[in-house]
Amino acid sequence: MNKWFRYLQAALFVLIVLLAQQEPVFAQYQGIWKDIESNQSHNFFVQQYDTGSTLVLHTTDAVTVHAYQGTMQGPVFEAGSIYAADSKQIRIVFSSEESAGVVMADVNRPASEDIRLTIFRAFPAVRTVRSGIWRDASGTLALYVQEYEAGSSIAVSAINGTVFRAFLGAVSGLQFKAVGLANAAEECSIDFLGEEQAETAVSLVGETPSPQLENSFYNVLKVFRPPALDVDFNAAVCSGETPLEVPFTASTQAPFATWWWDFGDGSTSTEQNPIHVYTAAGAYTVSMLAAVDQGLEVLTLRKDYIRVSKPETVIISGRVSDIDGMEGVQLTLSGVDPVLTDSFGDYTATLPAGWSGTITPQRTGYSFDPPFRPFDDLRENRLNQDFRAIPMTPPTADFTVSGSPTGPAPFTVHFLDRSTGEPLTWSWNFGDTVDSTASQSSLQNPSHVYTTGGIFTVSLVVANEWGQDTQVRAGYIIATAAPTLLSPNHGATVEPPFSLQWSAVSGAASYTVQVCENASFTGAGIDQYSSNGTGLAVMDRPAGIGYWRARANYPGGYTGSWSSVGTFIVPESPPPPPPPPEVGTVVLVSPGSGATIADTFDLMWNAAAGASSYRVQMAPDASFQNPWVDQDTVTTYLNVENAPEGTYYWRVRANVSGGDPGEWSTVRSLTVKVDDPPEPPQGEPVTLVSPENNGTLCGDQTLVWSAVSGAISYHIQVAGDVAFNSLWVDRDRTSTSLSMLVSGGPFYWRVRANYAGGVPGPWSEERYFYGPGGSAGRECP
Hints:
Elements (H helix, E strand, L loop, with lengths): L1 H9 L2 E3 L15 E5 L7 E6 L4 E7 L5 E9 L2 E5 L7 E7 L4 E8 L8 E12 L5 E5 L4 E8 L4 E7 L3 E7 L1 E2 L2 E5 L6 E7 L4 E8 L11 E9 L6 E5 L3 E3 L2 E9 L5 E5 L5 E2 L5 E4 L3 E10 L5 E13 L3 E9 L8 E4 L5 E2 L5 E7 L2 E8 L3 E4 L3 E6 L8 E5 L7 E3 L4 E3 L2 E7 L7 E5 L17 E4 L3 E11 L2 E14 L4 E3 L4 E2 L4 E5 L7 E7 L10 E5 L3 E4 L5 E10 L12 E5 L17 E3 L4 E3 L3 E5 L7 E7 L9 E5 L3 E4 L5 E10 L12 E5 L15 E3 L4 E2 L5 E4 L7 E7 L7 E7 L3 E3 L7 E9 L3 E2 L6 E4 L11
Parallel strand pairs: 20-26, 27-34, 36-41, 43-49, 51-57, 59-66
Antiparallel strand pairs: 1-11, 2-3, 2-9, 3-4, 4-5, 5-6, 6-7, 7-8, 8-9, 9-11, 10-11, 10-18, 11-12, 12-13, 14-15, 15-16, 16-17, 17-18, 19-21, 21-24, 22-23, 22-25, 25-26, 27-30, 28-29, 28-31, 31-33, 32-34, 35-37, 37-39, 38-40, 40-41, 42-44, 44-47, 45-46, 45-48, 48-49, 50-52, 52-55, 53-54, ...
């Protein structure tokens, strides 16, 4: 008996069933109940059925079993033994689904001998498709089956309702096999053939002195089942045409961890709630195996559960597209009416099952790939039967680049074809060849490396069998480059003002130059300049090392890389010269104010203290806005020749070497009156004497020429250009020399004779000369 109790306590699922035709109950009391007072020697097996009846089996030794059947009245179960010869009665009051009180009485004994117990549910039952009462056709055998969470099952076999045997074991797949709980010499086997049919046998497997069940074999059917199953599954749809999509759902109240489905067509799944598509007609048996890790496994099987038939019609569908779906394309199908594509380019044709033929798209101005699709004995739907429409027109060229069209050389550009109209060939010119029409690539999406800086025009020619098209993008690619610094040499010593020079960069619109006092070009003190050329004049810089760099600026706001960093050294400046001496004011001497004189005369004045030279102005107006004479001289007089008739005003001021000039003298007026001279004969040209051509004026800086017979004066011109457009001196002289104060150069000069009557002679030869200093660097001893 102790061995039997240990088996009962290890069982996970117990199934015990008796028939009763009563109203259904809702509280769940199924399972094994044990007493608290008598060391759990009393065992009550409770099972409820969908008819509303409740069965209770009671045993203390697994040999003698008392069976009670009745109807629950709320939480109270009260019934007599189901066997007429048994005088036992039982009353159970359930205080919850886990505890109850029991009174067991015998009508042939006094009430004082009644047994009163408090019981608790030790093992709740789990209702599966095997739970219930199974009987043979003659009603001789009753088989009560129930399962428990521990992974075991108990089957109670009863012959003619009088001989009971209990067997504890595990269901493996659809088979149960176990020896008796009270007598291990007996063995029970059950093969479950489905939800409603099984085969069972009880046989002797050893010697035993106690009465045994005779060797027996029975075909049994399930006649009563629980009101609901704790392990079950169902399908959302159980029949239909191929392809039939069936969602399956597992229904369970137990904490199963793994699942294994067999859909009957060779396909399986380990999902809890799988979806399966049946593609062939037939009746399919479906099974579900639910398992707890290292514990119970429950196999639920439904024979011929899913029924699938062949469809009467099939569907062909797809899309016709160019770039997007194409509306209004007619598709011709063999033997049936044509169909048209909708606004999305989609089409659908419903055809009889077994249809054979072709489907062909048609539209003016287009060909299609493939030109048609063939089908033979079509028995299932065919989706995504697409066609690509190809316009029978020349393509339209277009392209772009992946990334930026601007970058530093060497610059790799990835070109992307964006042409439409199904081009078949591509011809690219990247703009860095001598021949702008030459093909540099025939790839659809080429890459090209620009090795030198510049702005490049790119063209693409695309073609197909219906023509070609060209796309040209002028100045599309900008490969930037850094200038090369040319002057001053790296580390050269320079004195302001000086010039920064760099090389030209192809395609540059301007340049940015930075000059600062540190090589990192950070912080304050960075001077930035913009230049349209390749040079920059620096007028002033502090003494010390200077750093400079340049970069090119391109159209569209693009900039190139900075050049290398150049350096120059500005030496310390010498101390400033002493201030110039103060200069006195000039006092005019001759001619007197208001005098009338001939056209050739001398303007004279007194020397002023501190003067290094004098500035002389003579003008027809007292405001000197348009002076006729405006020149410097180191003497205290100025000879004026061939002055036109009229009234003039003149003044003089002292100049100071390296300093500010003095104040202007007082202003005097004079009137020039010229008598008409006789007309002179034409003379010969003047000969220039000094300086020689390309000479340097030093010392008193005097221009000298030879006298010409008959000349009454000479006209001299000194200019800054060889064409004598920019005249510095343009005047008459009675002498054959002219003193000047000049520096730099070159200066161009010529002289001609003037004769009586205002007739000029021919010009002399033209010479040029330099003064000391200036950019030419001429020096005097």
